[in-house]
Structures are given as C-alpha cells and as structure tokens.
Amino acid sequence: MTEPEPPSVAALSLAETATQPVSKATEQEINPWDVQAAVDEDGNVKEFDYAAISQQWATKLVDDALLERFERVTGHKPHRWLRRRLFFSHRDLELILDTYERGEDFLLYTGRGPSSDAMHIGHTIPFEFTKWLQDVFDVPLVIMLTDDEKFLFKEKLKQHEVYEFSRQNAKDIISMGFDVEKTFIYIDSEFFTSGYNRHFSLNATEFEKLITNNQVRGAFGFHGSTNIGSNAFAAKQCVAAFASSYPFIWGQDIKTYHRSQKLAAMPCLIPCAIDQDPYFRLVRDNCSRMDHPSPKPALLHSKFLTALQGAGGKMSASNPNSAIFMSDTEKQIKKKINNHAFSGGQETLELHREKGGNPDIDVPYQYLSYFEDDDAKLLRLADEYRKGELLSGEMKKECVDMMSQYVKKFQDARSKVTDEVLEEYLRPRKLEWKGNPNPTKPKVEKTEETTQGGPTLDADGKPMTKNAMKKALKMAEVEKKKKEKEAAAAAKQ
Ligand code: TRP
C-alpha cells in the first residue's frame, strides 16, 4: 500500500466550505486494488450499488434485448449468470455478436492476479464463465496470470512466491475444463522472458509511450511515491488484449520485428469483474492510436460474489470462514454454511412458519441462485421460503449439496492436472479453433499493410483479386443498407 498524497489546494478549500455533519458513512470504493462496499451513518456495511458504478463508468447494463440477440446469434440459451445478471454490465458486446455473425474470429482474454495459492468459489466464477464463452463461440483464449502485478503491488510478496502461486492457480484454472487446443495460459514473469514475447513487448513499449503519468494517476490513483513498475504494469494488462501480441497462436513468425496489422485489427472480448474496468478503459481510449490500430476491446463485467457473512462482505483468502475454498472438504463446506452463512430466516421455527424468510438476503439462497441452473426450482425455493414452508436449515442443506457437488467436480478434475498437463497449456504454440460454423452475414475484408500500399488480403491472408475486392465491397454496401433499413424500421416501432 502506498501513502496518500497531501490534499490539493482545491480539495482543501472544498473541505472548508463543506457543511455536512461528521458521520461514519463512506462511499463504495471499487478499483483494481481496493473493493469496499459503502457504509451508512451508523457504520453498517451496505450492499454494492452496481447500477451506480455502471452509470458512473458509463458501461451498459445487460438487458433482455441483448440476451435475446445473444441467443439468436449463438443458438445458445444465455448462461444463468447472464440471465440472473451476475454478469450485469458490458461494453460493446453487440460488436462481438456482429463479428461472430460474420464468421470472423475474435480473441477471448481474461486473467488473474495470483495473490495466494488458495482459490475460493468467487475466484472460479470468471473462469467458469469464460470456459462457457469459449464453448459457445469456439474462439482462441488467452489467460494472463499477473505475478509481476501482484509482486509490484503487494509490499510483502517475493517474486518466487507469486510465481509459485501462479503455477498452483493455473492448475486450478485448467481444472475448470478449458480446451488445451484453444487455450494459452501464461505467467507474466515466465512469458515475458521466453523469447516468444517479442510482439507483446513491442506492443507494450509502444503503448507505454502513449500513456502519461497523469493518465495512470487518473485511472488508478497513483501518486509520486508509487513505484515505477506499477505505472508501467498497466500497459501490459492493456496490450494483452491485442491479438498481435501473440502471433504464434496464428502460426505466425515471432522473430520478426514486424507485427501483424491484421491481428492488431482483431476484436477482443474480456470477461472480468467490474473492478478491472479502469485498465480496459485505458486500452479502449488509446488503442486507436497504435501504429497498427486495434478496435476497442469489448467487456463483460461481473459483480462480486457475496461473502458467507452476507451483503457487502468480501470473500478473503485470509479469512477461511468468509468463503468456500476449492480445497474444502464436504465436511468443511457443511460446517461453514451451517455456522457462518448469513440467513434470511426468522429467529425461531414458530416465527419462521408464521412470517416466512427473506431469500433476497439469505446467503445460502444467493449461492443457489448462482449455481442452480433450473430457474423453476429456484423460484419454487424462494416462494416456499417466503411462505415459511421451507426452513432456513433446509435451504442450507440445498446449498451444502450444491456447493459440495461443485467443489467435488473441481477436485476430481484438479487431481488430474499434473506438471506435464500444466506445461502444455503454458507452451506458446499455434492454437486450433473453428469459430462460427454458420455465419449469416458476409465478412468485412480487412487489409494487411494498407498503410504501406501492400495488397488487400482475403480472410485466409491471400492477396485478393480486383474482382473479389469489388464483390466484397458490394456485399459490405448491401449489408450496410440492410442495417440502415433495419435501424429505420426499429426506430418507427
Ligand atoms: N489484474 C487482474 C487481477 O488482479 C489480473 C488480470 C490481468 C485480469 N488481465 C486480466 C483479470 C483480464 C481479468 C481480465 O486479478
């Protein structure tokens, strides 16, 4: 943790004119290093206000229309975490659906800061979800393990420790079932010294030149005494979203200084918790300024999983009773849920039968709502709970069964992840994927080296004939007209 800077003159004069009485209230704080729910005047922790953060950061809320289109375009019922808005917000997901409709590739990218070797259920959410996205879209995926980030930001951690955490975390992540043919996992300290990182590093240096100290201070609250590694790290998490950072995935030459313009132009989708958004605002604001510009990466943001103690609480690796860990035994899970999960039930059985419970604040019910896929069953549980027909002990039992099953499935898979399996995922190599088997819209042709007057290339990277170019332009024109028509018709409705 770094020390706060003295307040600016403007802040001091503001403080002098402030008339509000002193209270214990604090606003919610969400940034990549600090996630705190708001506190009311009496010192009670409140629930996170996700609508407020979406509004403040100008993201879009996931809505029914978007999910309907998702289902239409992909042919898959949206994941329950989309239906139930655990993934609640996004940036430009529509553009990824457009890309998929045209049968064009995009890069899936996510990551984790390995701050301990114990992952809890909250940590597995983005990965379980990313695995589902990988299955739905059939696209290449990169997973970045930022041991350098955790080393730079956590005073006490040593480099070799975070590296070891990364290896353990990578094995946990592999256990979620990622297809090795389509997935490249990298540990920063290893990849950045491997020789396969030339294009990544060239991208990072170019991006570092575009970003000023003022920009990273604005985005992350850095100040004069922040170490310079933290300043520079942001660029790495940003350029990790450029497909041109990983030419080997497409079987391209890694030795040349020349980065692929076509890969740079490839879209990217990043599933992540909402606290990571400041990084990706930085890349979205600056990617068009790269020599080979990249489109703004699209994002799908998740909420934070509630701690066992209830709303506003945080799952923490240092408090074993705050969360269910992926290494817990069934007995431990049972004990934690029975003894530590916040219940929305009444004090006594009689009162519960009479007044009913409140599933909205009941942590066992909330966990069920994340892991039970059956919408009807979930509704029934909530309904019976409200009526007092279902007791909190019974709700807890449902939750224990569900969570034990989830953890057991994970542990079975984890026991098969040997060092050899890990090395295969970590090896920079060409990946294999198929993408959309039935594109419904024509491809938009991208040109390689247009800035240098080279030939226009088709989707397979071969130079296009004049006629093929004419045809592609015509198809794009027809497509554009059709879209305008659709938009006009939609506006009339
Ligand atoms: N900074 C993230 C963390 O501390 C790790 C990370 C790197 C990441 N790249 C990402 C997370 C992309 C989500 C998406 O956890």
Structure description:
Belongs to the class-I aminoacyl-tRNA synthetase family. Keywords: Aminoacyl-tRNA synthetase, ATP-binding, Cytoplasm, Ligase, Nucleotide-binding, Protein biosynthesis. It holds the Pfam family tRNA-synt_1b. With 493 residues, this protein is an alpha/beta fold. It folds into 2 domains: 29-307, 3-Layer(aba) Sandwich (Rossmann fold), CATH 3.40.50.620; 330-414, Tyrosyl-Transfer RNA Synthetase, CATH 1.10.240.10. Helix content is 46%, strand content 8%. It has 21 helices and 9 strands. The strands form 2 sheets. The chain has a 7-stranded mixed β-sheet with strand order 3-4-9-8-5-6-7, sandwiched between helices. It has a two-stranded antiparallel sheet with strand order 1-2. Helix 10 crosses helix 12, helix 12 crosses helix 14 (277-286) and helix 15 (330-340) packs antiparallel against helix 19. Tryptophan binds at residues 32, 109-113, 144, 146, 149, 237, 240, 270, 272, 276.
Layout of helices and strands:
Blueprint: H1 9-17, E1 29-31, E2 34-36, H2 50-56, E3 60-61, H3 64-74, H4 80-83, E4 87-91, H5 93-101, E5 107-112, H6 121-137, E6 141-145, H7 147-153, H8 159-174, E7 183-187, H9 188-191, H10 198-210, H11 213-220, H12 228-239, H13 261-264, E8 268-273, H14 277-286, E9 298-302, H15 330-340, H16 349-355, H17 363-371, H18 375-386, H19 392-414, H20 419-426, H21 466-492
Parallel strand pairs: 5-6, 5-8, 6-7, 8-9
Antiparallel strand pairs: 1-2, 3-4, 4-9
Helix pairs in contact: 3-5, 7-8, 10-12, 11-14, 12-14, 15-19, 17-19
Tryptophan (TRP) binds at residues 32, 109-113, 144, 146, 149, 237, 240, 270, 272, 276.
